[in-house]
Design goal:
Layout lengths: L1 H12 L12 H7 L10 H9 L3 H11 L2 H4 L5 H29 L5 H6 L2 H9 L6 E3 L2 H14 L2 H5 L7 H35 L11 H24 L11 H11 L6 H23 L10 H16 L1 H4 L23 H30 L5 H16 L7 E3 H9 L6 H17 L8 H11 L1 H4 L4 H8 L1 H17 L1 H21 L3 E6 L6 E3 L12 E6 L8 H12 L3 H35 L10 H15 L18 E5 L8 H16 L3 E5 L3 H9 L12 E2 L2 H16 L1
Parallel strand pairs: 5-6, 6-7, 7-8
Antiparallel strand pairs: 1-2, 3-4, 3-5
Helix pairs in contact: 6-9, 6-19, 6-20, 6-21, 8-18, 8-20, 9-11, 9-17, 11-17, 11-18, 12-13, 12-21, 12-24, 12-25, 14-15, 14-21, 17-18, 23-24, 24-25, 27-28
Main location: membrane
Protein name: Prestin
Keywords: Membrane, Transmembrane, Transmembrane helix
Length: 729
């Protein structure tokens, strides 16, 4: 009782509306509307208009290409400068050890990680539109670069001619190998930058949408496993070859296990100690996030401690611990990348360009939404393209946005790109002044930094439970991206994952949900009759809806579902009708033969039997026979009435975004077939672009007119009721 009273009270408070208008079909509605006159432009006019340049247009393009010209003159020094300085120092302190560490992932000497942490970061200040992301080295991209470098310059090729155990020969071997791998990494940066620039200028920023969140998360989780396994040899201090391509994870683990007996205990102790310190530091930063003015820079602390311990105890000589080694002081002169390598690494460059852009733009969108500003996806492509291509002339490898550094830059008070510029200047000071101090730094310390930074990515394994609850298809995308990237390699894995994601889109459109709609009483609202008890169907009217467009891939399933949901199969009814007609013809033929036989029997009978008592019987027989004879073929239809009392079928086109030529033919066939069995087909809520497409496909003719198209389902229902009443009268 109380529930009913509350329901009535809510109804009284609900706003009501009442509209009186004609029942609109498309023809009637178009007759009352006046289209705006638009003069179509010729191709020449379009080209002239696009090439026309005014001072306002030139200024707009300049500001778009160089966003710093727009925000720097308005920079509020008093409000923003202190936050940007603190944020820049905090991010720079992270940038330095991560640059050194991720260079190992990219299979190049650590100093090139510093170059990649300076040039691209500084350039992004001028061309980037995001105020909070930290550009520079990133584990996933570095791992992809390292895979290509090792594939192009494997240890086996370089080892030819350096079989001597002499220390000089060993140094020459590593120097030759590293030089060639640097050339591959630098050329990869140049090519991926050019690809990003081309995509940006062609306004192809939308390509990132094909890397869905489940795909990216599954891919990065697999990349984290690749990164972790690649760092095991540095943590354990053992010598193994680096692998790339399919099953590289398996080969890497097998190689480490085969050499596990040669583990350098000193390197392992140093590495494990650094891992513990870093995990403690991250936990403190997380728990006391609100109380700490800036996060504790555990990475640089660990680097300083590790360098000091290594130099003081002479770990390199005394315990054979591998160290960073030579870090040249100052910047290198610009050099042109090795152009002849481009054909061999072109596909890899495309993958790196798209993954790098996807990472950057996803983080940029998160911060833009949080802080209330907008980013330009195409300009981000251009900015990353300039950072990579120009940076490649100064020996940097491909870069993108780092998630961990971006969070630090934002949480420590960074307001603009100035924070990123300050972090790059800190790296520059290390390169030109104090870089040599980090030469004793053990490589196991860098491996520890890399491994601990993978903690956030490994947490993504929790996505499996989340997607299991929310979407099985997205779970399938995550699993395929993870498994393919883990076992096929990051390049082929990404390609496989994107292809599978496309297949899921086709699967969803080929297998949409089909529903039969009914009316909520006394409203013009129509819902699924199987879902709500209150929803009722109109007698003789079926309303059918599919939540997908109608095109070649799903036109057949659309027709099948329509027949199943409505319970009316025109083909079956027509077949039954033809069968009944044939049966009726056979019955008439049998009756005629029986009549002829009876007539012959009567003529052969004796005359006196004409007056016999049998006469009434013969008379009755003749009467029945005559009645059979009077049945004409025109009356066959009365024997094959449709088994359903449906007179109208309404197709709800609200979810339909497009119709191709196959879909249009299917729709026309449906209208024709149902008309043959006495069912009128109407189309409701068809959008303007779909109507235009149908017109272009010559869908409308004398038999299929625009009168079959209605503005809404309710218009179509009322029109069908009026038509049925007129037909019954």
């Amino acid at each position: 009782m109380e529930h009913a009273q509350e329901h009535e009270a809510r109804l009284e408070q609900t706003q009501m509306y009442c509209v009186e208008r004609p029942i609109y079909n498309q023809e009637l509605l178009q007759g009352q509307l006046h289209r705006r006159e638009r003069t179509p432009q010729t191709l020449r006019q379009k080209i002239v208009h696009s090439c026309r340049c005014s001072s306002k247009k030139a200024k707009s393009h300049l500001y778009s290409f160089l966003p710093i010209l727009k925000w720097l003159p308005r920079y509020p020094v008093k409000e923003y400068l202190l936050g940007d300085i603190i944020s820049g120092i905090s991010t720079g302190v992270m940038q330095l050890p991560q640059g050194l560490a991720y260079a190992l992932l990219a299979a190049v000497p650590p100093v090139f990680g510093l170059y990649s942490s300076f040039y691209p970061v500084f350039l992004y200040t001028f061309f980037g539109t995001s105020k909070h992301i930290s550009i520079g080295t990133f584990a996933v991209i570095s791992m992809m670069v390292g895979g290509v470098a090792v594939r192009q310059v494997p240890d086996e090729i370089i080892s030819v001619g350096y079989n001597s155990t002499n220390a000089t020969d060993s140094f020459d071997y590593y120097h030759a190998r590293d030089t060639k791998r640097v050339q591959v990494a630098v050329t990869l940066a140049f090519l991926s930058g050019i690809i990003q620039l081309c995509l940006g200028f062609l306004r192809f920023g939308f390509v990132a949408i094909y890397l869905t969140e489940p795909l990216v998360r599954g891919f990065t989780t697999a990349a984290a496993v690749h990164v972790f396994t690649s760092q095991l040899k540095y943590l354990l201090g053992i010598k193994t070859n680096r692998y790339s391509g399919p099953l590289s994870v398996v080969y890497s683990i097998a190689a480490v296990l085969s050499e596990i007996t040669t583990t350098n205990i000193a390197a392992l102790i140093v590495g494990l100690t650094c891992i513990v310190l870093l995990l403690i530091g991250k936990e403190i930063n997380l728990r006391f996030k609100k109380k700490l003015p800036v996060p504790i820079p555990m990475e640089i602390i660990v680097v300083i401690i590790g360098t000091g311990v290594s130099a003081g105890m002479n770990l390199s000589e005394s315990y054979r611990v591998d160290v960073v080694g030579n870090i040249p002081q100052g910047l290198r002169a610009p050099a042109v990348p090795e152009i002849q390598l481009i054909p061999a690494i072109f596909v890899d460059a495309i993958a790196i360009a798209i993954v790098g852009f996807s990472m950057a733009v996803s983080m940029a969108k998160i911060f833009a939404l949080k802080h209330g500003y907008t980013i330009d996806g195409n300009q981000e492509l251009i900015a990353l393209g300039i950072c990579n291509s120009v940076g490649s002339f100064f020996q940097s490898f491909p870069i993108t946005c780092s998630m961990s550094r971006s969070l630090v830059q934002e949480s420590t008070g960074g307001k603009t790109q100035i924070a990123g510029a300050l972090s790059s200047i800190m790296v520059l000071l290390v390169i030109v002044a104090i870089g040599y101090l980090f030469e004793p730094l053990p490589q196991t310390v860098l491996a520890a930094i890399v491994m601990v930074n993978l903690k956030g990515m490994f947490k993504q394994f929790g996505d499996v439970a989340h997607f299991w609850r929310t979407s099985k298809i997205e779970l399938a995308i995550w699993v395929v991206a993870f498994v393919a990237s883990l076992f096929l390699g990051l390049d082929y894995g990404l390609l496989t994952a994107v292809a599978f994601a496309m297949i899921t889109i086709i699967y969803r459109t080929q297998r949409p949900q089909y529903r039969t709609l009914g009316q909520i009483p006394d409203t013009d609202i129509y819902c699924d009759v199987e879902e709500y008890e209150e929803v009722k169907e109109y007698p003789g009217i079926k309303i059918f809806q599919a939540n997908a467009s109608l095109y070649f891939a799903n036109s057949e399933s659309y027709t099948s579902a329509l027949k199943k949901k409505t319970g009316v199969d025109p083909c079956a009814i027509l077949a039954a009708r033809r069968k009944a007609q044939k049966r009726h013809v056979r019955e008439i033929k049998a009756a005629n033969e029986l009549r002829k036989k009876a007539t012959n029997d009567v003529e052969a009978s004796v005359k006196h039997e004409i007056a016999n008592d049998e006469l009434p019987v013969n008379g009755k027989f003749a009467s029945a026979d005559a009645s059979v004879q009077d049945v004409s073929p025109d009356e066959h239809e009365q024997f094959v009435e449709p088994k359903t009392n449906i007179h109208s079928l309404i197709l709800d086109f609200t979810p339909v975004n497009f119709v191709d030529s196959v879909g249009a033919k299917t729709l026309k066939s449906i209208i024709k077939e149902y008309k043959e069995v006495g069912v009128c087909v109407c189309i409701a809520s068809c959008s303007g672009p779909v109507i235009t497409e149908l017109t272009r496909l010559n869908f409308f003719d004398n038999t299929v007119t625009r009168e079959l198209l209605f503005h809404s389902i309710h218009d179509a229902v009322l029109a069908c009721q009026v038509k049925d009443r007129s037909a019954s009268q």
